[in-house]
Automatic annotation (TrEMBL):
This is Stage 0 sporulation protein A homolog. CDD domains: REC (cd00156). Pfam families: LytTR, Response_reg. One of its GO terms (molecular function) is phosphorelay response regulator activity. The modification 4-aspartylphosphate is found at residue 58. Keywords: Phosphoprotein. SMART domains: LytTR, REC. Coiled coil: none annotated. Residues 172-236 form the HTH LytTR-type domain. InterPro entries: CheY-like_superfamily, LytR-like, LytTR_DNA-bd_dom, Sig_transdc_resp-reg_receiver. Residues 3-121 form the Response regulatory domain. PANTHER family: STAGE 0 SPORULATION PROTEIN A HOMOLOG, TRANSCRIPTIONAL REGULATOR-RELATED.
């Protein structure tokens, strides 16, 4: 079941977006529920945002705007797909910082076509994010979604997996080499930012000044020799989604 949230203070657009989403998902035979909210405050305070796979946010809402709402979602470690629906296109940098999947223009030539393209991209991404594997951790064999792994750190002959579980980070350890994991996980958008760190691109908020900044403001240094490559991979990834 796919849960979708629409947050917009204009009823006309809440209803229109809902109809377009329903039309698309019905043709795909996908089970879904859609909830609508009239403000960012109501969405954050009256529900559990982590339950939603996709969140549509109007940028120019009264009170808490869509950008601020998105930042608060990311501060909680929630990795839902965020789509901005707006009458303006002047917020690309802010959207980039919170990992927005798309901008949809309310007054665009064909909002419905743009919506279909957006949902196509999200469904493809979701298929990738369902990839998982059982790892022989010291804490016990555990099946892990690759999309839940923030990063992996190598310490001597041990690997520490930093995994997001129920909006909290838990660390698991196992014996192994980073080189083996890098080859396997690069297909799922992981990048080797340092000899000792393999990071999931979807949790990187920024690459600048020889470091990556994660969604929770944790930073990891990038050696000068790797910096341009990491930066290029990050930019390409943002372009894909």
């Amino acid at each position: 079941m796919m849960k979708i949230a629409i947050c917009d203070d204009e009823k006309e657009f809440r209803d229109l977006i809902r109809v377009y989403i329903e039309d698309y998902l019905n043709t795909k035979d996908i089970l879904y529920t859609i909830d609508t909210f009239i403000s960012g405050e109501k969405f954050l305070n009256e529900t559990f945002p982590s339950e939603y796979s996709i969140i549509f946010l109007d940028i120019n809402m009264e009170g808490m705007d869509g950008i601020t709402t998105a930042k608060k979602i990311r501060e909680r470690g929630i990795n839902s797909y965020i789509v901005f629906v707006t009458a303006y296109i002047d917020y690309s940098l802010e959207g980039y910082k919170v990992g927005a999947v798309r901008y949809l223009l309310k007054n665009g030539y064909n909002l419905q076509v743009a919506m279909e393209e957006c949902l196509d991209a999200i469904l493809e991404k979701k298929r990738e994010n369902n990839a998982r594997k059982k790892f022989p951790f010291k804490e016990g064999q555990t099946e892990v979604l690759f999309a839940q792994i923030l990063y992996i750190e190598s310490k001597l002959h041990k690997l520490e997996f930093h995994i997001l579980e129920n909006e909290k980070i838990r660390i698991y350890t196992m014996y192994g080499t980073m080189n083996e994991l890098e080859e396997e996980l690069e297909l799922y958008h992981f990048v080797r930012v340092h000899q000792s760190y393999l990071v999931n691109l979807q949790y990187i908020r920024q690459v600048s000044r020889y470091k990556v900044t994660l969604y929770d403001d944790e930073t990891i240094s990038i050696p000068k020799a790797r910096y341009k490559e990491v930066q290029a991979v990050f930019v390409a990834y943002k372009g894909e989604i």
